[in-house]
Specification:
Keywords: Hydrolase. Helices cover 36% and strands 23% of the residues. The protein has 21 helices and 28 strands. The longest helix has 38 residues, at 539-576. It starts with 10 loop residues before the first helix and ends with a strand.
Length: 799
Amino acid sequence: MPAHHGSGRGAADGERVIASLRAAATDREGPGAAMSVPRSGLASAVAELTAEVSALHAERGRRRLIDLASGVLAGQLALSPVEATDHLLRLAGSMGLSAVDLAADIVNAAAGTHVSDGPAEAAGRAAAEAVPAAEARRIRRGIAATTVSDTAAAAAAALLENGLHRLGVEAVYLWRRTPTACLELAAEAGADPQEASHWHWIPPETGGPLHRVLAGAEADWLPSGPRPGERLPGGRPDAARALLPLELDGLTVGVALAVWPGPAPLNPIVRDTVAALCAPAAHHLHAADTGRGVPPQLASLLAQLDHPGVVICPTAGDGPPAAGGLPAHTVDYLNPAALRELRAFPSAAGRPAAQLYPSVHDELVGLIARANAAGSPQYAPALPGPRPDAAREAESPRPEMAEVRVLPLGGGRAAVLWQTGSPHGAPLARALNRIDRLAAFEDDASGGSVWGPAAYAVFGLDPGGPPLPLRSLGKRLHPDDAVVLDGLLASITDRHTGGQCLVRVYRPDGGVRHVQIAAEPVLAGSALVGIAGVYHDVSVQHHTELALTATFEQLSAAQAEAVLRDQLVLRLQQAIVPEAPSLETPPGLRVAARYRPAAVEDRVGGDWYDVHPLPGGRVLVTVGDIAGHGIGAATAMIALRGALHGLAFTGAPPEQLMGWLNDVALGTAGQPTATAVCALFDPADRTLEWAGAGHPPPLLLRSGRARFLEGSQNVLLGALPGAAYEGRSTQLEAGDTLLLYTDGFIERRHTGLDESLASLQVAAERLRPGLVEDQADQLMGAAEGDTEDDTSLVVVQVS
């Protein structure tokens, strides 16, 4: 044990220890191969950074293991953290071990886990043989690596690579227990992706060995495969398997399955080692890397797909925008196929879409925006698409995503499904990906048949038995589908033309499969001598498409209902605020008003205007704009417009009316905010009293010169309780023209407000003398607003 040095250790000694740690963290574990360089551009840069981050994560795991071991030593030997680390490094050097191996031994010993260096019978070997001490250390290190893994996927990979693989195991599965006692596949390593997708969700109603182990909390060792009548993942029915309950804090939180390539004697040492290796995986099952806040029904649906699928949502808060000013997006859920494509990303769910899919991010976000705006799915044959400046004869690069479909989920969210890109085109890639579920067959004229190997699995028949000719399949089909098969046979035999059909096949084990049959006649001259074709098991796709169709129909119904509501409110709004109203002529004024709805169809806005004579001879002229769009904005507009109309009959000045209207906005459902200008014109002396609330100023045109009326910077309506408003008084003259308008009349996306107001001033000075109706039309034609907002204009001419 080293002597205590206390605070006498200097910075140089600390730097030495840190340098030693860095060397220890990489000794015997450095990357064994150079990083492959993908295609250039943004995707290449992100891929290189991702590989670097993965390497840093691996190093962090080793550093964490050393830190844990140092902490154990510090507690046991009463050392400082620096002294404990120094002691660990010197012990490793004196024992001829790497610091990581010794750290694993210390951590395992502290946790009560022990794997001996004695003899053991390795699974799959014919006789017992001694396991070298180095092998035992690797197993202990595998236990520690599983403990310090970041995710369930990393834990499964550590289990297989650092321990189970050396016992002969070829695949490992980790299921977590959901609150409804369903088993959800949290991670796998070494498994066939297609098979893993079939075992992603296992409800308790199915029973079977997995739920038996979950309920009984006892391991099940199967040297020769599952018991008769039971099924488990694995390449061979008789392959050895080990089922282990995974416990955390006294509760069974999941199940682990280890699969060997064939039968294997599972002796006590192998069983103890497998159990010790798998036990730490329980810590990762309560937070499997699947998704954040995605409905379980949608997650389970996407999990059944054998091609990638994700749920993408707008990023909460501020984030770097995509192209065209679209909001940033986050990937909230990835199905197993999508996770397999992103092995290099730890904890992919919750990351920005720009990180996971950099080369297609802008195009993908654009598809999502269009899907949600239209309320219907969007499609792209390949992402990234061809560049506009690319030569037509140039070879197209391999797409990152092919056959992309975006289904809107509302609220800016969308489900994105695609096929993995292929240089040969998406259709061929899809066919190659599904080749394991295609089975060729050929019938001859004598009634014989030849099947491909996969056909027996489709129909649930013994591979050693005789195949069934196409004509004899009717008795194994649903009665309604036997007629469909007869139609296909008639087309082949009577018209010598091929065809296809979809049928439901009843298997001997009680299962039902949806099988697509495509068949062609084999002709010798004009004589039919046989039938050739393929059976395609489409059960997973069939059920998924039905579920997706039902989900989309519900979304479409909700969207249609929302559109209907918007249309009804829009009609009500147009009845109250018509585009070209016939206003009565108030005393002393000539008035024209124009209203232009938002550019987006059925987009309900919140603009209003009002011109109305009041008792005593004065005339109310007002223009306002509710913040936002939709039903809420329209109903708030109606409430504020009606309230101001009634309050004006009190004879109160405009600033008092604005104060009252502010109280009305604060008391209205949803507490809307609004800008407005309220003016009272007295024809007796041509005095205009007015007050604004965060609204663009009125424009006065006199003798061909235009100027904006200056008013106080009053706060907008509904923003501040008890707000006080100041009014102004302007003396008008005969022939003066006054313009009141909303911001949609002047605002432009890439132009400042001052420049927009200056453009309006120039347009007003260019007005030709004439009727006020003609001047209103001229101004609306010259309006430069391009924000797709509502536009309101009131032109008042003093007579």
